[in-house]
């Protein structure tokens, strides 16, 4: 689960949307009621957040539908287009494509008031849609996305006292994430005053939450001392509140100067005790250091502490 916030579900057609809270063994559904569908009123957001295959697919469908619609209008209105044989629908479709994209090869041209009126409307619509489409495509490409990788699991080191929760992350790009801040939180779904369910977030203190840069790899460490909720709450209590451990990372991309924000969620039950992460940074025979990203998720048994 990539986000500690409820996952947005699909509208079932009744003005309801289903979400999920919790991970792993404990999961529950949350139904949003009364918000309805906001697809057309929030079309720009949908265009930015949908997947590339879906975006390109719907763009192609809309492009073909608009040009086919104008081709049918030319035919129904008996608009005369030079070199379009007998109002042939395929010829009118290609003429519409040329007009919509403002290419205008000159082989086919409108004659008469009706044809020129339709061409004027389509040319105006084409310029507007092409401008909007260019802006959306640019916005999708220019959105800041830091390529920060999170370990699949967390480990609880018991070699020192107090024990410590460790989560590893790594930067897979050559450019660093500057002025990085990391925050660890415990998310719980509880019944508050008055019997109403609510979601609470408890910050888990880190040994180091601010770093000048993240260029290769870093391990976030939370001491499980007497003040830590992980030491106070039992496994049963954590299960009952659909507990998640959320990692939020903020920083500035070195290459673009844009702010980046990522969040990753962990099931509290997937924190493995008595283990440590395998070292990712190793020195080879020539004295150079290598960062092996294949080891990001690898763990091993902790060595026993010296007496």
Automatic annotation (TrEMBL):
Region of interest (Disordered), ranges: 1-25
Q: Which InterPro entries match?
A: Ig_E-set (IPR014756), IRK_C (IPR041647), K_chnl_dom (IPR013099), K_chnl_inward-rec_Kir (IPR016449), K_chnl_inward-rec_Kir_cyto (IPR013518)
Q: Where in the cell is it found?
A: Membrane
Q: Which residues form the Potassium channel domain?
A: 70-141
GO BP annotations listed: potassium ion import across plasma membrane; regulation of monoatomic ion transmembrane transport
- Domain spans labelled Inward rectifier potassium channel C-terminal: 148-301
List the membrane topology term(s): Multi-pass membrane protein
GO CC terms = monoatomic ion channel complex; plasma membrane
Q: Give the residue spans that cross the bilayer.
A: 55-77, 89-108, 114-139
Q: Which domain of life is it from?
A: Bacteria
**GO MF annotations, alphabetized:** inward rectifier potassium channel activity
Main subcellular localization, coarse class?
membrane
- Enumerate the UniProt keywords alphabetically: Ion channel, Ion transport, Membrane, Potassium, Potassium transport, Transmembrane, Transmembrane helix, Transport, Voltage-gated channel
Under which name does UniProt file this protein?
A: ATP-sensitive potassium channel protein
Species whose genome carries this gene: Asaia bogorensis
Its ancestry begins with: Bacteria, Pseudomonadati, Pseudomonadota, Alphaproteobacteria, Acetobacterales
